[in-house]
Design goal:
single chain; alpha/beta; Rossmann fold; seven-stranded mixed β-sheet; 7 strands; 38% helix; globular; binds 5-O-phosphono-beta-D-ribofuranosylamine; transferase; Formyl_transf_N
Length: 194
Amino acid sequence: MTKIALFASGSGSNVQAIAEAVEAGTVPAEIVLLVCDKPDAYVLERAEKLGIPTFAFKPKEYESKEAFETDIVSRLRAAGAEYVFLAGYMRLIGPTLLNAYRNRIVNIHPSLLPAFPGKDAIGQAFEAGVKISGVTVHFVDEGMDTGPIIDQECVRIHSGMTRDDVQTAIQKIEHTLYPNVIKNLLNGNREEQN
Ligand code: GRF
């Protein structure tokens, strides 16, 4: 069983979906740590209910990004984590973490990259009036949502949909796409994601 860590900053619906897929035996992994940079985030309550060990920290309590990432890396290593999956972790990964987990950090982003990178991708797509958006799962590199794409799925934005409707449609896709990509990645099958 591959040991994986999840990183999140918010509600954690993707963490929940991944944990349920692990529990159901569809994703061949053990979630050894949830890393969270917001100690009051709802994802921590979910993790507790799911029985996932957590490390919550406040970046401002460290003197630098290098310092908190060094702490994270040592906790990941202590837990035996082999892969890191970002699930709504709202922070750019720095060289300390990237070098420790080169090609082993994956992110989910709520747009069809390279369109609408960065914050509030759903709002950006909505404001742009695009008719098709979607979800991207990609490897993490130094840039903002720029690493090699692993898989994507599209969502059609119909006229009359509100921003919340788009978000609901996107999150529904995320909750099946991400566990599926993780399953295929851990099974050593990068190309065939479905
Ligand atoms: C998701 O839409 C994900 O694509 C983005 O942040 C959101 C996290 O949602 N990176 P949740 O915390 O998993 O509910």
